[in-house]
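hey all, quick one before standup. I had two proteins in the batch that finished overnight and I want to keep them in one place so we stop losing track of which output belongs to which input. First protein below, input sequence then structure tokens straight from the run.
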Amino acid sequence: MRLRPPVQKSAAGSAPVSRLATLDKVPAATRVRVTAIAGERRLRLRLLGMGLPVGALVDVLENRRGSVVVGIGGLRLGLGRELGRKLIVVRP
């Protein structure tokens, strides 16, 4: 039996939007919590050094074609789209 993540309606009310997503799929002006990093230990350590550990609350400031800009506390970080695909986030 597979468990599904909780689902909520989208703003338009037509299609459901899962609370669980990758960072590159989250729209701007959204607050999310990093729940996992899909990558090697080296990547997790790199993100930890940048101030982006698992469990961090992150504000998505911009989400454009090539990059995602996030805010953590007083920091702003620009992440590439490929890196954004490796961050699993949930809306709190």
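OK second protein, same deal, sequence then tokens:
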Amino acid sequence: MALLGTAVLLPLNPLRVLNRAARPAREQAVRAVRTAGDAYRDGVGFSGAVVVAQVRTTVSDLLLASGLTQENANHLVRRVFGDR
């Protein structure tokens, strides 16, 4: 959750143009979803699975806000999370 919180606080380009300002937020968001995937595979129970789903959704939204398309953001989240 700390990784996700940091990603939310990092600046995003208001014009949604890909640039250096969005990179740190994306990197933190990707780390958060990777960590959530690791935790999920280790076993988090029902409540943990709900939190993991919320992390995935939030990361997808952050990536969208950083300038990625919805399709690209969702694909990245799935790939990094480890969906097969």
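Flagging for whoever picks this up: Residues 11 and 21 are 6 Å apart (CA to CA). The longest helix spans residues 45-65.
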